[in-house]
Design a protein that fits this description.
Chain lengths: 311, 181, 438
């Protein structure tokens, strides 16, 4: 078989700091290949037979976990799941204890989810096998950004010069941060928009604004983020109606964007908060497509960290 | 790689395929339940030819599918990151069928092994045959072809290239020598 | 003349300047002579520098109650290894050091250990709860040298004003961890482009400067009070701990120009590390106040030079390895540094930036002593022989595994430093000697 020679890759996926554009594109191409497998009547291949991956979730997330586990199973990997809680004391098991214990059991790759930024990086220092970040605090959610990029390319083609507006609670969003790292790498212009109290002071490669009209103007795609209801308790937002009044994506406001600009949302969605009622189910919404693509992207990531050529 | 010689020309390829088509009909005692499945890439063109030949000889068009075996290979770690996964399409029920798997070259047997797995994942045929245009030896698995266009003993440093009209603009089988690395 | 130790050919450097080589004879806890004499132990200190013992106005030694992190034995041994003869311990232990009884017990235990001398700081308010003042007079009598609720912030300005007034009336300095809890929120690192990018809760520089501004106004108010003029007599009333920001420094500099009785300190980490170290996402760099920016470091070095910053305080804050391996939200704040503070700043400031050596020595010796009301130690005949001999030329990497502290990790691990202490004397008694000297 004549496979094209491909560049070597980081053997982990923590964020996109050590990724180059060619590597990301190659990974997205692999995801395209996985899409082909998912279109078959029998959606299972033996590519990862003999590998065991562990989903280690210190923060619950059924959707992400199922997506990863299905991705692994479709490639015939064995999957074990660990759910744990961490406390601020070391009375219980520490992250390191937990991960080292799993390592002794012969895990080949770790899919890690935590409520605190940086744990995948720490784990990567402690473990000898690949670590895939399935979301760490407000910091990164690289497979979500990859599936967003994949979905956007499916719809818009090359992202070079395309304007992508991300709207909502940018400050506390790992999805926003990972997209702000990834999309500009693929040539897109990212504008992040939200209430002043929910914007970080800066994000590299990203324009920040509180002005929704400015953010949506001529946008090629619009991504709304989930609003965590506890923001109201911390003095960051007065109320939900206040958010809706200023930042909900409505039919009317979408007219500021390019005609037919698609709409994305990482889910789970607060109906009638981030998006006006019917929009989520309108033909412009790519929300279901995102979920479907999530599996292909995660299959590609697993394939790449487990059987891809070593760096 | 450097070109060494042409092993089969257009006529020889045609004759080899014609013979395989006859042998298949003979062995299957007609076209009942017969179908062909081509393995990407050149196995597909060859399977297409065999379907046409069978139709010419028997007056009946048998179904054909295509099979991608990339993610079934046991040497994925050596291929590198970018698997070229192509379409698998078997637009008929495999259950009870006599399937002729078609590939261009039989070498180590690993492709055929992967193809068997990929095929069995798709259904439960009654019988699976293997047809190849060239058998060049050096098997690493206990696999043999039921129908062989030509047996061509080669050395491991050589490469056998099958060209088809559809994929390469000509029908030929060529022998190339791998460069010293 | 007959003494106990003769240190020959040592270069002398103290807070007043460098004084050339001398043969220093030590006996009866004092410097007997600078021109040699007979002694039972004779050390050749050629190429080494003799200075007054370092004085740390701020260390967390964790006893009582948190001995798993550090205790007096390990902490005071670490201090002696770092060239410190005197250490002020912070009272945020369990229980909190808020009674004369605990102060006395700590002092007695430290004396038995016989390494660096311990000067406990006691809580400003009982239990450090910010409500009821602790017993300043009784605490001072027991040996407390300072009152502070460090570990916590003094959110109630009224309580702070009363505490300052009351402590001053008994001659005790009050020190504060100046951060506005509201502005700090859940910040785990400096708020800035690094925290924004990493998605970590940020602690803005203005949490510190806003609190310093308030506290300076509290001092302005307090010194109007009855009898305060006579009591303060040039001494600091309010000491601002671990200054970390350029803006905070500007406020303090202005306050000093206005004649306010205030003082401040800076930590070795705030002079050598920035928020960019957090890019590694390693909680080893998590400290409060947080590591700031290059601009802040430049300002702090300037402040240390011009005397706006009175002294170096380590804020040695050991935790267990397990605790520092929690995530960045949950790992506790603090960096252990008693054993590296001097070589670190000697290398990074004096050798690399040309910072004047006598001034750095002053900030490690006379500066903290002055802030706390201790007399300075200078290298003269008759002076107290609490001294450190250090090696200005030998380069050696920081090796946390060899720390005497229980916290065997360091953000400076592997840094090549010069200036390592080789001998520490407290009143003529050896409390640390490196192996070649033993
Ligand atoms: Zn403090």
């Amino acid at each position: 078989m004549n496979e094209t020679a491909t560049p070597s890759f980081p053997k982990h996926l923590l964020d996109f700091q050590d990724w180059r554009r060619t590597q990301v594109e190659s990974l997205l191409e692999t995801a395209q290949m996985m899409q082909e497998v998912l279109a078959r009547p029998v959606k299972k291949v033996p590519a990862l037979t003999g590998f065991t991956v562990a989903t280690v979730f210190f923060e619950p997330s059924t959707r992400t976990r199922i997506s990863f586990e299905l991705a692994a199973r479709r490639m015939s990997a064995d999957v074990v799941s660990f759910s744990g809680a961490v406390s601020s004391t070391t009375k219980g098991e520490t992250y390191r204890d937990t991960l080292r214990t799993l390592e002794q059991m012969g895990i080949d790759a770790y899919i890690l989810r935590t409520d605190a930024a940086g744990v995948p990086h720490q784990a990567h220092r402690w473990l000898h096998k690949p670590v895939i970040n399935a979301g760490d605090g407000w910091r990164a959610h690289p497979t979500q950004a990859l599936l967003d990029a994949f979905t956007l390319r499916e719809k818009l083609g090359d992202l070079e010069g395309k304007k992508i507006a991300i709207v909502g609670d940018i400050l506390h969003s790992r999805v926003a941060r990972s997209n702000a790292e990834l999309l500009p790498m693929l040539g897109a212009k990212v504008v992040a928009c939200g209430p002043a109290t929910l914007l970080p002071g800066s994000l590299p490669g990203t324009t920040l604004t509180t002005n929704l009209k400015e953010a949506l103007a001529e946008a090629d795609a619009v991504m709304a983020l989930r609003l965590q209801k506890e923001r109201m308790d911390k003095g960051l937002l007065p109320s939900l109606p206040e958010y809706i009044a200023g930042y909900q994506i409505t039919e009317e406001r979408l007219r500021w964007a390019r005609p037919q600009a698609p709409l994305l949302h990482p889910g789970p969605m607060n109906r009638d908060v981030e998006l006006e009622g019917t929009l989520a189910d309108s033909p412009r919404s790519l929300v279901e497509r995102q979920v479907a693509n999530g599996q292909a992207v995660r299959m590609a990531v697993l394939y790449h960290v487990l059987v891809g050529k070593k760096s | 790689m450097t070109f060494k010689s042409k092993l089969l020309n257009e006529d020889e390829v045609r004759r080899a395929l014609t013979r395989i088509a006859h042998e298949v009909i003979e062995k299957n005692k007609g076209t009942d339940n017969l179908c062909f499945v081509g393995i990407h890439t050149r196995g597909i063109s060859l399977a297409q030819r065999l379907v046409n030949l069978v139709e010419r000889f028997e007056g009946k068009r048998v179904p054909m599918g295509i099979l991608d075996i990339t993610l079934y290979r046991d040497d994925l770690t050596e291929i590198g990151l970018q698997p070229k996964v192509r379409e698998t399409r078997i637009p008929f029920d495999l259950n009870g069928k006599a399937v002729v798997l078609v590939d261009d070259v039989l070498y180590t047997g690993r492709t055929a092994r992967a193809a068997l797995d990929a095929l069995i994942d798709q259904g439960r045929p009654n019988r699976i045959y293997l047809a190849v245009l060239v058998d060049r030896g050096h098997r690493e698995l206990p696999i043999r072809a039921d129908f062989v266009g030509k047996n061509l003993p080669t050395s491991k440093s050589e490469v056998v290239k099958v060209k088809t009209q559809e994929d390469d603009g000509e029908d030929a089988v060529e022998l190339w020598e791998m460069e010293e690395s | 003349m007959k003494g106990e130790i003769l240190i020959k050919n040592a270069k002398l450097a103290d807070g007043r300047g460098e004084h050339g080589s001398a043969d220093v004879l030590i006996g009866e806890g004092r410097i007997l002579s600078l021109t040699g004499g007979d002694a039972s132990t004779v050390l050749d200190a050629t190429g080494k520098v003799l200075s007054p013992g370092f004085f740390d106005p701020h260390a967390h030694l964790r006893e009582p109650g948190q001995e798993v992190k550090e205790d007096l034995q390990s902490g005071l041994t670490a201090a002696a290894k770092g060239g410190y003869t005197d250490v002020v311990s912070m009272p945020n232990t369990s229980p909190v050091v808020d009674s004369a009884e605990i102060v006395r017990a700590l002092k007695e235990k430290a004396a038995q250990i016989g390494r660096a001398r311990l000067h406990p700081a006691a809580a400003l308010t009982q239990g450090q709860e910010g409500k009821i003042l602790s017993e300043a007079r009784l605490l001072r009598e027991a040996g407390a040298v300072m009152l502070t609720d460090d570990g916590r912030t003094n959110e109630d300005a009224g309580v702070l004003a009363q505490g300052l007034q009351y402590a001053a009336s008994w001659g005790l300095l009050v020190s504060v961890h100046a951060e506005d809890a509201g502005l700090r929120r859940g910040g785990v690192m400096h708020e800035g482009k690094v925290s924004f990018r990493l998605g970590l809760p940020g602690n803005p520089a203005y949490a510190e400067s806003a609190r310093i501004a308030r506290d300076l106004e509290v001092v302005r108010y307090v010194i109007q009070g009855p009898g305060m003029e006579a009591l303060r007599s040039g001494k600091s009333l309010l000491h601002i701990q671990h200054l970390s920001t350029r803006r905070g420094l500007e406020l303090i500099r202005q306050g000093k120009q206005d004649g306010l009785p205030i003082s401040t300190e800076v930590g070795p980490h705030h002079l050598t590390l920035t928020d960019e170290h957090l890019e590694s996402l390693n909680p080893i760099y998590k400290v409060a106040p947080p590591l700031r920016t290059r601009t802040d470091i430049e300002a702090l070095v300037e402040g240390l030079l011009d005397g706006s910053i009175d002294c170096v305080g380590t804020d040695h804050a050991p935790h267990t390895q397990d605790e520092k391996e929690l995530d960045l939200l949950r790992a506790p704040f603090g960096i252990p540094n008693l054993e590296v503070a001097w070589p670190l700043l000697y290398t990074e400031l004096v050798l690399k930036r040309g910072f004047p050596l006598p001034i750095l020595i002053e900030r490690f010796t006379d500066g903290p002593r002055r802030v706390l009301g201790f007399s300075p130690i200078h290298l003269t005949e008759g002076a107290e022989a609490s001294l450190v001999l250090w090696q200005p030329n030998n380069q050696r990497p920081v090796e946390p595994s060899a720390f005497a502290s229980k916290a065997k990790y360091s953000p400076w691990e592997g840094w090549m430093l010069q200036g390592w202490p080789v001998l520490t004397l407290v009143e003529g008694r050896r409390v640390f000697a490196s192996e070649p000297l033993l």
